[in-house]
Structures are given as C-alpha cells and as structure tokens.
Amino acid sequence: MNDGIVLVDKPVGVTSHDVVNFLRRKLNTKKIGHAGTLDPFASGLLIAGVKKGTRVLEYFLDMDKTYRAELELGRITDTFDNTGKTVEEREVPALSEDEIVSVLKSFEGEYLQVPPAYSAKKYNGERLYKLAREGKIINLPPRAVRVYSMTNISYSRERITFTARVSKGTYIRSLAMDIGYKLGCGATTTNLRRTSQGRFSVDSAFQIDDVSQISIIPLEEAVDFLPGLLLSDSETMNVLLGRQIYASGVAGILGKFAKDEIIRIVGSDEHLVAIARSERTSSFVKTLLRRGSVERVAKLVKVLGA
User: Fold this and answer.
1) What does each of the 306 residues of the chain score in pLDDT, given as a tens digit?
2) Residues 234-275: tens digit of each pLDDT
3) Facing residues of 250 across strands?
4) Where in the chain is the domain with CATH 3.30.2350.10?
5) What CATH homologous superfamily does 226-303 map to?
6) What homologous superfamily is domain 4-62+199-219 in, according to CATH?
7) Which residue of the set 39, 64, 98, 269 is catalytic?
C-alpha cells in the first residue's frame, strides 16, 4: 500500500473520527489520521493521512480553509448551529442586501473570535464539547483569527449564504454568531461545507464509500507544496541514517525558502525521505553550491525512510 493522503468528502452526520475508523477498515491499516476536524453537522473536504502520510499531517494544519456556509438570522442556539437547543429568538430587522454585504465584508481581515463552547478544542486536556455536555461551559478568551475573503453573499427569507476563506483556528459557527450580533438579531449556522484546504479541493475528493488504494495521493505529491532540497545518492543514504544535511550533498533546490522554514528532503530516487528545517535561505544555498561549500544547510526534523 502507498504512503500518502486521501481526500475525502465527509458526509453530514458522521464525525471526523468516524471517517478515520471507516478508512482504517477500508484500507486495512491502523495508521490513518486526519488534518483538521469537521463537525458532524458539516460536510466537505477532510484530508486523511495513510501510513507515513500521518507523519506529515501537521504541515497541512496551518493551511487556509474555504467554507460555504448558511446562517439563519434571529435564532441563537447553545452550539451556534442547528444541532443545538434554541436559547433565544429575536426579531429580524428589515435589512437590505447592501447592508448585509457591508456587515459580512467588515469581518475581512484580522479580528478577535471566541471559540464556541461546543467544539473539539481542548481545555486542560478535555474536549470542550465533552465538558459542555457535562454542563461545564468553559468560556475561553478570544483569539486572533483572519478572514481573507467573504464572497458569494446572498440573502433570502432571513437566511444568508456566503463563502469564507479563513485562517487556521477560525470557527465559522462563531463567525456566523458575530455576524448575527452585528446585524442586531443573532444567528445560527444551519449548513456548513468545507470546499478547500490550501491547494486541495473537495472537487477532487472521494465519497467515503468510493475510497480505495488508488485514491491515495503519493507522499511526494502530497507535500509538494513545501519547498525543499534534492539530495545526491550518498547524502540520501546519510539522511536515512539520521545524519544532517550539508551543501556538498545537495543536488538541487526545490522552490524558494527562507531561513528556519520547514522544507521537504527528497532523495536521489525522487522519493520523500525526510522533513527538515532550513538553516540557510534557498538563495544562499545556491551560493554555497557554486562555492563548493561543505557547510550544513538544514537540520532534520523527522526521517520518513526510503
């Protein structure tokens, strides 16, 4: 079986962990994880790692994400979505489409957001949703998140639909609540679908029942969004033995990178062999290669093997 990732179109009504368990049975391996929880009521793109693919999932977590969402004005629930108990209902004022677009657009940029009490975020080692179900509501402090864009905004019968591209850690349910409060009536999320994560799109994802061995994107292709270094035969062997990376063993530079950036290390057979942290910029590594330097250029983070 290949190491790599699988793009899954998670259906509504199952947890992200349910998807992982299904894939473990389907692909006959326990080494499966995912790169970012989707709530049970949400659908869309879930990136799953297979075998060695689980060891690179952390590098997918910081990717921006895009969602298509629908919210209902005038209703507030304890979970901030339509699976929760209605705790307040308010009259929805007369709103023009221009007013709605203006409010949604006002959230573009960085703003402080409070995570919902029912979420997978942890507090003292416990998931917030578990504590909330036990009646222990934890109010976490707001944290800075970024909304890169709010587009495809439409309004009909007290429901707003929109597409939001956001940073890591942004909760669309909280964003919908904040939109509702700014409109003067509150709101709850009634539909949520993740359409992309970084360069990966739900359009390329498999329905969960259709996943098979051929659905696995090879490790090398999966992480080609990371810049990196291509090694010589001898340096490849050295890295597989856990030795550090020196300019004398670099056969090529893959993209541009800054100092202290996470990079991929590709062996002479073009297979991913390691993840490292650069100790020189890509432009300076080029200079070192021209000089025939033996200086160290990257520090290993993890060796993935041949």
Assistant:
1) 689 999 999 999 999 999 999 999 999 999 999 998 898 899 999 999 999 999 999 999 999 999 999 999 999 888 888 888 888 889 999 999 999 999 999 999 999 998 776 544 444 445 444 433 434 344 667 889 999 999 999 998 799 999 999 999 899 999 998 999 899 898 999 999 999 999 999 999 999 999 999 999 999 999 999 999 999 999 999 999 999 999 999 999 999 999 999 999 999 999 999 999 999 999 999 999 999 999 999 999 999 986
2) 999 999 999 999 999 999 999 999 999 999 999 999 999 999
3) 231
4) 4-62+199-219, 65-197
5) PUA domain (2.30.130.10)
6) Pseudouridine synthase (3.30.2350.10)
7) 39
Query: Start-end ranges of CATH 2.30.130.10 in the chain?
Result: 226-303
Answer for the pair 92, 104: CB distance below 8 angstroms, yes or no.
no
| Domain 65-197 CATH class label | alpha beta
Question: 301: closest CA among 248, 242, 246, 247?
Answer: 242
39 catalytic residue (yes or no): yes
